[in-house]
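In response to the reviewer comment on reproducibility (Comment 2.3), we provide here a single inverse folding case reported in full, input and output, so that an independent group could reproduce the run without further information from us. The structure tokens appear first.
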């Protein structure tokens, strides 16, 4: 199991995957807005999305777990 975390605090402006989707390493999965910039968050490993722990509009802290892969 692998976790995708927020590289910095910000606001979730887009979630590009759904539970059950397969993702490849380095695939964009979430877009954060931080310091007035869009910051793509990419998968750190290949796998299947088991759980999404945020939704569009959520404010997240740095290092918060956003997605769990299995």
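Designed residues, in position order:
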């Amino acid at each position: 199991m692998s976790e995708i975390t927020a590289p910095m605090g910000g606001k979730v402006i887009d979630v590009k995957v759904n539970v059950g989707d397969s993702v490849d390493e380095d695939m964009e999965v979430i877009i954060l807005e931080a310091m007035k910039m869009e910051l793509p968050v990419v998968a750190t490993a290949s796998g299947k999305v088991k759980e999404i722990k945020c939704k569009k509009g959520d404010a997240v802290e740095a290092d918060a777990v956003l997605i769990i892969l299995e």
